[in-house]
Amino acid sequence: MKRDVFQAIADPTRRAIIALVAVQAMTPNAIAEHFDTSRQAVSKHLRILTECELVTPEQKGREIYYRLEIDKMKEIDKWIEQYRKIWEARFEQLGEVLEVMKTKHQEE
Amino acid sequence: MDFIVNKETKTVSITKQFDAPRDMVWDAYTKPELLDQWWAPKPFSSRTKVMEFREGGRRFYAMVSPEGQERWVLQQFKSITPKTNFKLFNAFADENETPQLPGSDWDLNFSEQNGMTTVHVSIYNESLERLERMIEMGFKEGTAAQLKNLEELLVSLSQSAGAK
Prior knowledge:
The complex is a heterodimer of chains A (108) and B (164). Chain A is mainly α. Helix content of chain A is 69%, strand content 11%.
């Protein structure tokens, strides 16, 4: 099943992880140091973020570094922007319909 | 227009003020012949097949692309406080009114002050992935159609600029 990217970023810990790896790619251990939760919990969050393609693991020597996929984050903003445009167009049209209704109402 | 996406509460809130009395705005939202004039963003058109505006009733309509492709939507009215508020459950559907879940819960509020009406729409998505899917499924063709028709594109651009 495809992961829900919005659910992935709805979680506060996962958002904090995104903020961390946005600055620089980090190992799971380095990420876990920033949280009170277990290393296991952090791994689970990283797995979800990876499945959503928001972060990518990269093997460097013995360590795995997670880095942010900035394009994927931009994609989310793009969807939201498109949805906003739909409502803008819709409301612009409603404004026009209301103008016509007002004119008709005055004529009556 | 205010447009706020709250990822924590999975809610999209849209607020807009109209220079018209509340009775008129309410009619534009609840009478199918008026709704169909503005509901679909151009170049799409809205075609309401069933409109039973009462608690437990439904609106069943199609978003029709310029090529004539229909995408059906079922809205079930959960509660109605005349001229003030109504709530509905919104879901894509097939042509036989079978909803495709998950859908979203809409809460629409209408208030008037000094002859101006404020509409506040709050849309709760069980899954915000729905938002992504909605745009992918419903409006991809729309964007292509707009590119084909420069005039339509310019109209929509000036509309979004005017709404800001």
